[in-house]
Specification:
By secondary structure, the chain is mostly helical. About 80% of the residues lie in helices and about 0% in strands. The protein has a single domain, classed as Orthogonal Bundle (MetI-like fold). The chain contains 14 helices and no strands.
Length: about 280
């Protein structure tokens, strides 16, 4: 198989490049993950099951996966709208807004958490108006949702925006000339083209939400059984010097995230196959 790939490649150096790629991948990804599983393997099957199914840990799974999924869904909608505005319209301050989209990438997560806490705390700039209405954001799961929307939005925008910019507007004009309405043009012409990118942005925002820690712990309040996330549970186990249990919980998160990403990648491949066949 390697010989056939060598023959098909126009650029020389396939063997060296492939060898370096595999070595780098093993060094940076495979070896650390293998070490994680080896650490968890120190537990017996019963102890492993007990560590990953503790009531407090199960609730943390529910909070992390549920809120990360909900935040990614919101980011699909508003990320698409923001990408559409940046790709299709010219207006004063566009470059500033375009730069602000990347701010969560560069902003330290602890700074984001402190800023959100100051904003939504009961005595914060917005919290003091929301609290009398019975809406408490800080120190609740709602605060986690707000934080994950903040950190996940750029992933959707930056994956969808280039696709919108590269789309041929002639296709939309042709659809409209054939009698399609604006909504029909969007759903039947534009959406199939941007759907793989939208799904990629959703997956990246969801994965970021699952692993987010710094911005969440400040606004979540970390109340047991209410607003604890899985990364916090791992840190708690580490602080208790229970490294094997921490590794076990991390393995569950790793496997679950990997399966979800595989499913999403499979959906993307099927969508791309349908478009190629069409």
């Amino acid at each position: 198989m390697l010989s056939s790939l060598k023959k098909r490649s126009i650029i020389p150096g396939f063997g060296v490049c492939m060898g370096f790629t595999l070595f780098y991948l093993a060094l940076v990804v495979i070896v650390p993950l293998a070490g994680l599983f080896m650490q968890a393997a120190q537990l017996s099957a019963a102890d492993f099951w007990r560590a990953v199914t503790d009531a407090r840990v199960l609730h943390a799974y529910k909070v992390s996966f549920g809120i990360a999924f909900a935040a990614a869904l919101v980011n699909i909608v508003f990320g698409l709208l923001l990408a559409w505005v940046l790709a299709r319209y010219r207006f004063f301050g566009k470059k500033l807004i375009d730069a602000l989209v990347d701010l969560p990438f560069a902003l330290p997560t602890a700074v984001a958490g402190i800023a959100l806490s100051a904003l939504y705390a009961p005595q914060g700039w917005l919290g003091k108006y929301l609290d009398p209405l019975g809406v408490q954001v800080a120190f609740t799961p709602l605060g986690i949702w707000v934080a994950l929307i903040f950190v996940g939005l750029p992933f959707v925008v930056r994956t969808v925006q280039p696709v919108l910019q590269d789309m041929e507007k002639e296709l939309e004009e042709a659809a409209i000339s054939l009698g399609a309405s604006r909504w029909q043009t969007f759903w039947l012409v534009i959406m199939p083209s941007i759907f793989p990118a939208l799904l990629t942005g959703f997956a990246m925002a969801f994965a970021r939400g699952l692993g987010e820690y710094g911005s969440v712990i400040f606004i979540a309040g970390n109340i047991p059984g209410v607003s604890e996330i899985v990364p916090l549970m791992i840190v708690i186990k580490l602080e208790q010097y229970d490294y094997a249990a921490a590794a076990a919980i991390a393995c569950v998160m790793l496997v679950a995230s990997f399966i979800l990403l595989l499913v999403i990648n499979r959906l993307q491949q099927r969508q791309a196959g349908k478009e190629a066949f069409a």
